[in-house]
Amino acid sequence: MMSIEKIAVTADIDNGLDSPVSGHFGHCKAFIVSTVKDGEIVDVMSVPNLSHSSCAEPVNNLANLGVNVLITMGMGMRPYMVAQQVGLTVVRGEGETAGEAVHKYIAGRSQMMDRDGLCSGGGVHSH
């Protein structure tokens, strides 16, 4: 059976798989979306993180694109909950670049994001 996954990585600089992984979901500049087929990256596209009125919007946009996995260094509780609702697996970003993070995930070396890893949503968030 062929397995295809779409994996989005948060990025502050839009430079494809060489983009550094962004520290925060809501404030990233773009999502680097890799299509992975049988463990190989077969397609990469960049989705700008448009200004949004609600932190659910970027999650829903990714889900509408068919993204299954989101890799990020940090995200708030609300977008995390929305991701759970739409069936996105949230993975803690590891590796310097989007490409490294995706390869670690493919190799099964990534950790799932759990509630402990979430940003508390203090004064840092500007919506």
Structural write-up:
The protein has 127 residues and is an alpha/beta fold. It has one domain (4-117): Dinitrogenase iron-molybdenum cofactor biosynthesis domain (Nucleotidyltransferase, domain 5, 2-Layer Sandwich). Helix content is 22%, strand content 26%. It contains three helices and five strands, in the order E-E-E-H-E-H-E-H. A five-stranded mixed beta sheet has the order 3-2-1-4-5, sandwiched between helices. Helix 2 (77-86) links the parallel strand 4 and strand 5.
Features:
5 strands; Nucleotidyltransferase, domain 5; five-stranded mixed beta sheet; 127 residues; globular; alpha/beta; disordered C terminus
Question: Helices, strands, pairings?
Answer:
Elements: E1 4-11, E2 30-37, E3 40-48, H1 56-64, E4 69-72, H2 77-86, E5 89-92, H3 98-106
Helix pairs in contact: 1-2
How many domains make up the 3D coordinates? 1
Radius of gyration: 13 Å
Give the name of the CATH architecture.
2-Layer Sandwich
**Mean pLDDT over all positions:** 88
Q: List the uncertain runs.
A: 122-127
The portion of residues assigned to helices is 10-25%
How many DSSP H or I helices? Answer: 3
Strand share of the residues?
A: 25-35%
**How many beta strands in the DSSP annotation?**
5
From the N-terminal CA to the C-terminal CA, the straight-line distance is: 43 Å
How do the strands of the widest beta sheet line up side by side? 3-2-1-4-5
CATH topology tier name: Nucleotidyltransferase, domain 5
What summary fits the major beta sheet? Answer: 5 strands, mixed
CATH hierarchy, class: Alpha Beta
